[in-house]
Amino acid sequence: MTDRISIYDTVAVDRLRAELKFEPRRLRALRTAYLKKFLGAQAALSELPADVRGEFARRVEFHSLAVADVRDSQLDGATKLVLRTAAGFSMEAVIMRTGTGRVSLCVSSQVGCAAACGFCATGQMGVAKSLSAAEILDQVVLAGERMQAEGRCVRNIVFMGMGEPFHNEQAVYEAVAALLSPELFHHTPGRILISTVGIPDAMVRCARRFPEVNLALSLHSVRPEVREQLIPLAAKYSLEELRAAVVQVNRIQNNSVMIEYLMLAGVNDSLDAASELAAWMTGLDVHVNLIPYNPIESAPQWRATEQPARDAFAAVLRQAGFTTTIRYSLGADIAAACGQLVQRENRQIARQQTRQPTPVA
Ligand code: SAH
Fold it and tell me: Do 73 and 55 have their domain in common?
């Protein structure tokens, strides 16, 4: 832990400014350089009067993560940042540059995940260590600085990295509030998306608090026994409760909810399953994103649905009137399915630590 002031703690940073006696506009310029233009801490500090720079830099923590590794895909526009927390845990953020030049950033909210989905590398790591808001936000800053150096900027921020965002609700909300704050990042709410395994109350709370931020629900099946086989946590929340949550979210928000559907051969990809999904979604304002399975070492029993079957599945949904897209997968050569690179390493660290990672509820 650090006793330095977080750069995101606006009250404490303002107090420090008063103590060091420099003008508010200098602090605004520092924040603009660091959080809106992503010019880096050094350039941001140069916005302050020379006599206070040193003291400000000593008292304020800019980065809470260390960059342990950077892997650029040789196949496409993905870059994986392997980042280390002060506690020594590694996690990942993935930069995705698309053909149109737009950049999306996939951020992690936890190290490990209590949802324990069998097809997910992070789920196989076991209980989660939740990240702080500063650790979530530093992923945006570190990626932003890399993009700035390339003359690009991060357009979309998706909480689809490691962890279940709604098992770390407070820190995620704090991070989203900072992203939206005009004083801090001033990011457009419609360009933030939070993907959840499906925690009904939290989905509604999130929609109320951030009505313009997009929500995605990892549904993967509307057959209870299949969904529970894929997502052990699903046993806790029924499909009826989830549907009711989407209804409520639809009432609160103008945006449609994204339904994520991981396609696994012979498990959930039949045409009957597509019809059942369409029936479940009837009356909801949703769009579907079909996800090709990214095979992981620990789940050799599952195979990805082949393209013809995927297209046939999509056709059933489109026929029923649902906008359906197929997720474009990047970074196959850098194990961009989140969690794959750091899985083993974290297990070792967790074993070495006397203090165990905090389990989530
Ligand atoms: N906990 C959140 C974020 C997880 S990652 C959630 O469950 O939504 C974002 C998406 O990637 C989820 O839909 C998740 O089910 C999916 N996913 C996880 N592992 C995958 C894999 N190996 N291949 C394809 N998609 C995967």
Answer: no
Residue 118: partners with Cβ closer than 8 Å, 6 or more residues away: 124, 229, 230, 232, 299, 302
Is any atom of ligand 1 closer than 6 Å to the C-beta of 124? no
What's the pLDDT at 74? 81
Main-chain phi, psi angles of 157, to 5 degrees: -120, 120
Domain match, 106 and 174 both:
yes
Name the strand (E) or helix (H) holding 167.
none
The answer to the question of residue 344 being in a domain is yes
Q: Are residues 199 and 318 in the same domain?
A: yes
Domain total for the chain?
2
Q: Model pTM?
A: 0.94
Q: Are strands 129-130 and 90-97 parallel, antiparallel or unpaired?
A: unpaired
pLDDT of amino acid 348: 62
Considering the domain architecture, whether residues 229 and 147 belong to the same structural domain is answered as yes
CA separation for the pair 91, 107 (Å, rounded): 9
Is 305 near ligand 1, meaning CB less than 6 Å away? no
117 is catalytic: no
- Is any ligand 1 atom within 6 A of the Cβ of residue 185? no
pLDDT, tens digit (0-9, with 9 covering 90-100), for 284-308: 999 999 999 988 888 889 999 999 9
Which tokens go with 348? 């070792």
92 tagged catalytic: yes
Write out the residue range of the structural domain in which residue 37 sits.
5-61
Same-domain check for residues 112 and 19: no
Per-10-residue mean pLDDT, the chain, length 361: 88 98 98 98 98 98 97 87 94 90 94 92 86 98 97 96 96 98 98 98 98 98 97 95 98 97 98 98 98 88 95 98 88 64 62 48 35
Q: Is residue 361 part of a domain?
A: no
Q: Confirm whether 358 is domain-assigned.
A: no
- Nearest atom in ligand 1 to the alpha carbon of residue 339 is 19
Q: Do 195 and 51 belong together in one domain?
A: no
State whether 268 and 340 are in the same domain.
Answer: yes
Output the residue whose Cα is nearest ligand 1's atom 8: 196
Residues 75 and 52 in one domain: no
- The type of residue at 255 is N
